[in-house]
């Protein structure tokens, strides 16, 4: 069987190992990234809020524009329910897994000892950022954390995570609550949670990627659009705007000022968006027993994906889905509530701001 050493032997690590490293920290997780310019500058600008002076326990090698002379036999990776088209392919080798992004050709080698990305990295920086953050996710998952599909914000006395179906409004809700001057951004889409008294939450160092509807609904964000693009979007039917996928990167420091990110926080509250744009009743937030609401739990649970290797060495099986029990345990000391009624971001953000103040 092909080994990870066989793959590494086909790559030239020199451009990474001779470059000046940079270091990141999220909670207790530290990471060292080795990559050449100009990618290094682009990444250090992106991760400016979480740069560290201390080398981490994880090392990532980034090798732009390299390819393998001999490709492995790829197997298509099953996507989450409701997702269409091929996205990832995998090839398991001795002690490691290779993952390839089908559309871009960016390829990864993943094991507890090795994390390498190669291919057209300069043209796919978002993919590289996701790979770096995946190392944090996998390390925490092996240490007993659970991965939630949630945005999160921390306030002076309480903190709040928000889940919902994709496009349900969790990013818009959290960014509106960032108007609270003492709030801190924790996560936009991936949140790690661990049981405790209180429970603990950990975000990953990733800035929000938001759709035009989120931008139009928040005056603070309007400058992210050109006047022409804004006028074009404002003329769209509301239903079309709600479903439009056209991602923009929002850098927290640029919009809200410095020191507004806080990746680690105690977790006190968790909301699940189950509201409707066609409802006529007011927006309400009602505490629920999550053990009795598997429909809401399904919106919270997130599969770790193809990159994750378990503590016993097994890689996440293709098509595997999370089980409820670990998430219920992790959220046992968190107040979980259902958001129902009509979609009203102003009303919800006001409830959220009051919650964050305790």
TrEMBL record:
Keywords: Kinase, Transferase. GO terms for molecular function: kinase activity. InterPro entries: HprK-rel_B, P-loop_NTPase. It comes from the Bacteria. NCBIfam families: HprK_rel_B. This is HprK-related kinase B. It comes from Pontivivens marinum.
């Amino acid at each position: 069987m092909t080994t990870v050493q066989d793959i590494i032997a086909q790559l030239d690590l020199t451009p990474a190992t001779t470059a000046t490293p940079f270091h990141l920290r999220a909670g207790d997780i530290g990471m060292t990234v080795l990559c050449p310019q100009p990618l290094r500058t682009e990444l250090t600008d992106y991760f400016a809020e979480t740069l560290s002076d201390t080398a981490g326990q994880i090392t990532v090698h980034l090798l732009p524009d390299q390819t393998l002379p001999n490709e492995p036999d790829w197997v298509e990776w099953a996507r989450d329910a409701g997702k269409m088209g091929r996205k990832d392919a995998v090839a398991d080798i001795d002690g490691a897994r290779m993952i390839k992004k089908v559309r871009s050709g960016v390829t990864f080698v993943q094991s507890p000892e090795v994390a390498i990305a190669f291919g057209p990295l300069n043209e796919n920086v978002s993919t590289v950022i996701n790979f770096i953050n995946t190392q944090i996710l996998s390390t925490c998952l092996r240490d007993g954390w659970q991965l939630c599909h949630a945005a999160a914000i921390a306030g002076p006395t309480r903190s709040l995570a928000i889940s919902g179906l994709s496009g349900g409004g969790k990013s818009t809700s959290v960014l509106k609550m960032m108007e609270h001057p003492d709030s801190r951004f924790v996560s936009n889409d991936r949140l790690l949670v661990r049981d405790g008294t209180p429970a603990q939450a950990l975000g990953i160092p990733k800035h929000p990627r938001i759709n035009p509807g989120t931008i139009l609904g928040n005056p603070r964000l309007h400058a992210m659009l050109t006047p022409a693009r804004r006028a074009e979007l404002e003329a769209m039917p509301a239903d079309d705007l709600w479903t439009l996928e056209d991602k923009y990167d929002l850098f927290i420091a640029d919009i809200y000022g410095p020191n507004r990110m806080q990746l680690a926080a105690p977790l006190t509250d968790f909301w699940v968006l189950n509201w409707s744009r066609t409802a006529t009743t007011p927006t309400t937030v009602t505490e629920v027993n999550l053990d009795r609401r598997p429909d809401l739990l399904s919106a919270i649970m997130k599969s770790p994906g193809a990159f994750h290797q378990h503590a016993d060495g097994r890689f996440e099986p293709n098509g595997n889905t999370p089980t409820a029990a670990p998430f219920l345990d992790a959220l046992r000391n968190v107040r979980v509530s259902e958001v129902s009624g009509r979609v009203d971001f102003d009303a919800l953000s006001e409830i959220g701001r009051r919650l964050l103040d305790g």
